[in-house]
Amino acid sequence: MQRTPRFYYGWIIVAIASFTMMIISGLFYTAGVLFAAIVSEFGWSRTTASLPFSIGLISYAATAWLAGRLFDAYGPRWLFPLGALFMGGGLVVAAQATTMWHLCVGWGLAAQGFNLAGFAPHLALVSLWFERRRGTAAGLVLGGANLGTLFIVPLTQYFVDLYGWRWTYAALGVVTVLILAPLNALWQRHRPQDIGLHPEGAATGPPSAVVPPMGLSHLLGSLRNAQFWGLLVSVCSIGWLSNITSVHQLAHMVDSGFAHLLAASVIGLTGLLRAVSSPVWGSLSDRFGREPIYTVGTVLCMVGIGCLAGLRPQAALGLLYGYAIGFGLGYGMHSTVQAAATADLFPAHHLGMILGVLELGWAVGGFGGTWLGGYWYDRHGGYHGAFVITVLICALGCLGLWLAAPRHNRLRLFSG
């Protein structure tokens, strides 16, 4: 007879994943801090200075499917330490940069760290361990990612102001490797079956056999699925929203007359609200369905981005905090509910590959948002129109999730 543990190890998996995502995601989203620093030091145009971050997204997109495949095959104990090495090494390389191509190489390596130990493999991991409370678990992991924005972005800005961006990013790179590589190598586990357990919420009984990673035929079958394309539209929207804000929000706030540290602190506040709201959104989507909750969060995001678009010199401080509250609460929903919806629609043992392929959409959307922000500023002298377009992109992403219709699969899974 199988012994039922008093404490489910899946929650340890969630805790380690949340901490790892806090570091990896927080560092990746210091792009705005690095962007402002290199514009100040090198005097490049906003379009030119956006290039390393756009190249990083291309690097990320080109290998996201491979990261998913590697996760399905080898698991987190091998993949996540490698991701920490790429992230840390990339930051150290970027810190030595004297030319544009140096920064492109450094941030490209960091993007690979975000790829190997970022959203897709972590969300695939928790989906292997949880079924009924999948949205809650995903929300806790993404809450950690959002805490990274809360603490690491303003802390990085503080140390950049104090010691300069080169010393700051070199130190962050070294510390990342020293902490995250041993933590994940020692304590992470791939599947509950590896330690004689079954997924939370699954039928009890002997743990099921491990299924081989997804092959090319399975992947092509998924690409012919209309639900996949609905999810891809949603993920493109998230990538656009995430990257146009992470790269350009700080510069836009400073251009509007707000101090660097205040702007970084407001960005940190959005991270706090995202961190707090992510598990709540996930739990609500477990209870009330993915699509209705996604719609509520999207409306909040649209209001927040509208406030950001309205920022101008002498603008009311209320617009700045309106952005933080609307975007912070609304964006805390996006990745949590979208990842849970993907897990509802596709088998958990192939989820790393599916999420990796979907990350291509995230990178394409992110490239478009990052580039448009820089282009719009250089052509029009501000970001206002680019953020208005972003409001429309949010609505398009919500439509994509409704077309994917994860509610039908979830009803079949848990009915009765």
Shape: globular
- The secondary structure category is mainly alpha
Low-confidence stretches: 411-416
Stated plainly, the CATH topology is called Growth Hormone, Chain: A
Q: Order of SSEs, N→C?
A: HHHHHHHHHHHHHHHHH
Q: What is the radius of gyration?
A: 20 Å
Cα distance, first to last residue? 26 Å
How many domain units?
Answer: 1
Return the average pLDDT rounded to an integer: 85
Quick one: CATH superfamily?
MFS general substrate transporter like domains
Report the total helices. Answer: 17
By DSSP, the count of extended strands is 0
CATH architecture: Up-down Bundle
User: How much of the polypeptide forms β-strand, as a percent range?
Assistant: under 5%
Bin the helical content: over 70%
Q: What is the C-level CATH assignment?
A: Mainly Alpha
Write up what this structure looks like.
The protein has one domain: Growth Hormone, Chain: A, CATH 1.20.1250.20. The two termini are 26 Å apart. It has 416 residues and is mainly alpha-helical. It contains 17 helices and no strands. Mean pLDDT is 85; it is low at 411-416. Helices cover 81% and strands 0% of the residues. The longest helix is centred in the middle third of the chain and has 30 residues, at 134-163.
Helix/strand layout:
Layout: H1 10-28, H2 31-42, H3 46-49, H4 51-74, H5 76-95, H6 100-116, H7 119-129, H8 134-163, H9 165-187, H10 216-223, H11 226-255, H12 260-288, H13 290-309, H14 317-345, H15 351-380, H16 384-404, H17 406-414
Helix pairs in contact: 1-7, 1-8, 1-9, 2-11, 4-5, 4-6, 4-7, 4-15, 5-6, 5-9, 7-8, 7-15, 8-9, 8-12, 8-14, 11-12, 11-14, 11-15, 11-16, 12-13, 12-14, 13-14, 13-16, 14-17, 15-16
